[in-house]
Write a structure and sequence with these properties.
single chain; about 220 residues; mainly alpha; elongated
Amino acid sequence: MFQEFGRTSDVRKPAEAADMPSKVAANQPKTARGEATRRAILAAAEKVIGAKGYNDASIGHITSEAGVAQGTFYIYFTTKEQVFSELVLEMGRLVRHTIAEATQGIDNRLEAEKAGLYAFLDFVQAHPDLYRIVQEALFVDPDAYEEYYKAFASGYRTGLEAAEAAGQISSGDSETRAWALMGIARSLGEQLVVFKSDKPIPDLVASAYDLIENGIKP
């Protein structure tokens, strides 16, 4: 499902701030120690906002979790919204990187779908707070939410078009297919993280892959 979602080069390093939206591009650290502190604040924000929700999480909660003074937060971030937006973009970068690695070397599109879906669900199960933050972004930061999904859809569409040209899948509307397949992954991610399903990931992937490969036609 995810081949061409993104390549390993899509993982943006902290210093590559020029490509980032202005509200998350400010105050990039210039030293390794500064970067470590910034990463600690981001990790704490992921945990606190993921658990409490954006409205109930305060900067004080975040800095307390990170083990830094509250004033330190403002060295790297201007507002709580800024750190939230960065977490949404971080989720996108990490997921694309994870899926690119999982599907690397897989030439068959359908097999790439299976491997990519497994990698995605494994990732969201390991990062439930980050996944919940992305879901909340629809209401907190619609621009970051839109960027997150449009980046996935663009790469997905490209991969489907290439697979269709290679005769690996049937012809069809690649744009609609991309969003539909993304919807499958998103819903299964919710089943794991939001509804706390105890169904093993291999079982989820097997059922979803059967649907993708064969449909529901008898």
